[in-house]
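Researcher: Please translate sequence to structure tokens.
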Amino acid sequence: MDDKTKRDFILLFNQGFEEVVLPQIKEIYKRLDLIEDRLDKLEKRIETLEIRIGQIDNKLDLMNDKLLDHAQQIKTIQAVPAIAHQIKK
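Model: Translation complete:
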């Protein structure tokens, strides 16, 4: 292969690379940016959900504590003979 043919081949290769490959690479990077944005949004939503789940968990713990207190109060009330007699009727 002579030098002119080599240069023509290299120019043709470079031109094809710039016209076909580089635009595809740019498109890939655009899509990756969009994916990254979506992931950031999902991460924020997950953080918000984790906070809300924590709040719900705290409320459930509080309600459970109240139920246990109420159960103890009922047992105490039922232990009083005058009241226990009324409850059994």
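Researcher: Any highlights?
Model: The mean pLDDT is 92.
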